[in-house]
Amino acid sequence: MTRRRTTLIVLAWNCWDLTKRCLDTLRQTDLTDAEVLVVDNGSTDETPRALRDYAWLKVLTNAANLGYVGGNNAGIEAADPTSDVVLLNNDLEFGQRDWLERLRACAHSAADAGIVGCRLVLPDGRLLHAGTYILPDTMWGQQIGSLEKDIGQYASTREVDGIVFACAYVKREVLQAVGGLSQDFRSYFEDTDFCLRARQAGFRTLLCGEVTLTHNEHGSTRTDSDGFLRVFQESRERFRKKWAKTIEARYGREVLWQSIMNFPSGYATSCREILRALDRGGVRVTYRYVYGPGTPFPVVEPESNGDYLLNVIRNRPSERRPQFGIVYGQGDVFLRNRGRRKVGFTMLEVDGFPRDWVAQANRMDEVWVPTEFNRRGFLESGLKRTISKIPLGVDPNYFHPGIAGHPNPMGEFLFLSNFEWGERKEPWLLLKVFNQEFSAREPVRLLCKIINRDPSVRVLDEIRRLELKESGGRISFLFNREFPYYQLGSFYRSADCFISAGRGEGWDMPLMEAMACGLPTIATDWGAHAEFVTEAISYPLRVKGTIPAVAKCPYYEGFSWADPDPEHLRFLLREVYENREEARRRGAAAAREMAEKWTWDHSAGKILARLEELGG
Amino acid sequence: MVSDSDETALRIARLEARVAKLETILAERSRLLRVLTRELCDEDLMNLSLLAGGLPPIARSGFGLLGWRETTALSSGDVDRTMEQLWRSVAPPAPEEE
């Protein structure tokens, strides 16, 4: 197959130092079948003179500054009319030699791939851009990436609403179909506008996660903040008039989601992920805090969690009695459901459900749980309503084998476990068995990330009572240390094996996240784990049977949970440590399976399908 | 008998000696601060400043039982820096005895 010729259009207006760095780094990359065209947009500094020394590129000189749109359109006009084009800002730096070939391959991977962008990082390494989205509520395009540390997130190719045109590969077919950038915009919104026009013409916008460039953002406008704001507001208003109806049409249905979002809890973490996935799936979600008076959680939930999309969802007005209400939380708050049709969505770590939960669940139109384990437990506890299985998931953009880890530079093998101290997680078993099985002389370590919020518990005393041997397997602790959620993949990737050897789980997101990162995992073969833990992709830990679930949690009273087998745990620890090739194989298989079957988009898909059947 | 000028000269000499001593102390203190800034992690530096100011140090999450500080408060950190600190704090296993 012949390679399509590509014209790289670098738009420059003053700031020669940036342009020089851009061109000098660009020259070091593979520019096969490409020509470089610099559009000097009426620069008044040394740019025109300095460009004369760059004989390897073409220069188009505009007599005056035509703005971002005018300058780029002039470049597109001047480009080889059979070539694809790549629009490039002059404040980019190219540190990846094959960037062009990868973008080109991505653009030509499908006939309907039209525009391709890449990951952009700031010079300090924070992730600036991995695509954009725009919400009808605010009509303000948002960059995906949130200035997080770059740990390798968004490394795959995926479809996005839009990209910023600091670097945009545009296929010739798109230019033929929609023309150049819209003159309605002098600057800002022209890129989203172009992506929307391309979509109307049948072309998708992709973000190629294999390419990362450095962007010194707003090189030409950062020194003029008044000018920036004026141009931005004018463009935003024009954009609203042109696209409001199209963008509002992204939502096909509405639901009220009553849950918890901004407190540290498993429900809150999964709630945030489900809301994002539902939004991607075309559901206009409104949100209300379901806890407060009469529950262990505070009366008022903090308003912001720093996430633009979730804050917008949280602040949306909702009808007093919307058609569909979904309560996602413990079963004793189901009756707070405000929908005309009511769904209660919950989970529990033991083999049955409390009487009060069942009573409230029986007043719902339908009940959702993530696992067969919970479905059976609810029915056996007296549930009379329809019960559907809606699995939870994992975000493969943040949990995948390419995420950067921080393994021990001395090469020790690291077992990792991440849990809240307490009866359910049975930490004593893991600590004792690991310490007994290994010797301090072996290059192996167990790292336990422990959280304890219970002031009546003294974790140190409980560990000391285990009388762990100095000569036994070495254990390190991260006590009450919180990491930003987006960095957890990096934490898992720092280890060689993840262990979840507790007594019961409602789902176990950390386990699934570690599996998605490609780690071999040892997990109790009981409860929710049975949903996604198999011999082929993990090391299921045998249980001796079930025992009464004795813990501080009142929900567990009268029910049972697993009794993991210490001898088998010991065997599995040694097995993973000794047979690393097989362990790696299972970890890699787990990562593939998580990405193929268990993402949040799969969860949202199941929710959408169920709402469809319910007439929502 | 000591003249006024002798007394002034003596006083100047004493003062000069005092200044020289202070300069030495200052230089030593600057050297120490440079070493501390270079060698200590941010958390240690922060705690040093707090202690020097008469304030209690921030709770440290120990990597082992020795440095353990029992608390229900959570401390936040980045994964890269935490892991770097952890690996700095652990020694490789002792070699097998022959």
Describe the structure.
The complex is a heterodimer of chains A (616) and B (98). By secondary structure, chain A is of the alpha/beta class. Chain A folds into 3 domains: 6-247, Spore Coat Polysaccharide Biosynthesis Protein SpsA, Chain A; 253-390, Rossmann fold (3-Layer(aba) Sandwich); 413-600, Rossmann fold (3-Layer(aba) Sandwich), CATH 3.40.50. In chain A, 32% of the residues lie in helices and 23% in strands. Chain A is built from 18 helices and 27 strands. In chain A, the strands form 5 sheets. In chain A, strands 1, 2, 3, 4, 5, 6, 7, 10, 11 and 12 form a 10-stranded mixed sheet that branches. In chain A, strands 14-13-15-16-17-18 form a 6-stranded parallel sheet. In chain A, helix 2 links the parallel strand 2 and strand 3 (58-62). In chain A, helix 8 (266-280) packs across helix 18 and helix 12 packs across helix 16 (566-578). The two termini of chain A are 48 Å apart. The mean pLDDT of chain A is 95. With 98 residues, chain B is mainly α. Chain B has helices at 4-39, 42-52, 79-89, and one strand spanning 75-76. Chain B is elongated. Chain B is built from 3 helices and 1 strand, in the order ααβα. The interface between A and B is medium-sized, with 39 and 30 residues. Strand 22 of chain A pairs parallel with strand 1 of chain B, so a sheet runs across the interface.
